[in-house]
Specification:
Helices cover 70% and strands 0% of the residues. It contains 10 helices and no strands.
Amino acid sequence: MLHQLQTLYNAMDFASMGAAALRVAAIFLCLTVHETCHGLAAYALGDPTAKSMHRLSLNPLRHIDWFGLAMMFVAGFGWAKPVPVDPRYFRKPKQGMALTALAGPVSNLLLALLAIAISKVIYLYAPYNVFWNGLFEFCLYTVAPLSVGLGLFNLVPIPPLDGSKVLAVLLPDGAYVTLMRYERYGMLVLLALSWFGFMGGFISNAIFAVFSALLNLFY
């Protein structure tokens, strides 16, 4: 029995397991910031719903949808629990929803910028050792590109992604109501587009372009 356990231990790829754990941690961070900023934007515009449901929190367990997290690995994109928003609290509901929706992707781009800035500080001033090198790589190669990807993907104007609510500001009321009526089918459309690879190249190119532009600000 001891020999079998030793064989199993030797066969385990701890480097890959560590990389996977760091990726999950980065996903938790990016999704938590994204959803919290939705709630903060809504609260700033007069909607207390997210606050009353304890969603103005950096605790990832309040935001993570476990099935959505699994789909991020299986289908290439996933989701968190949507922050509850009641547009009746907004003076201008369509504009309020658009600003609330936009807060998520913007927060992800700012998080990516912060992660790159931290990596630069580590590069310039931290001693070279396992801890600082690991943190450098986590910020630069995991958090930053993942956060850019999450932000850009959510700007795609297909319900229920944030981009559809931003686009709705430009639509007449009738078209807006129609768009929201079919919001529940949007996830199926996204899954189909992802499955057949229709969005992969476009999103990947956009992520690379934005990530490179942010990187050029510091390197």
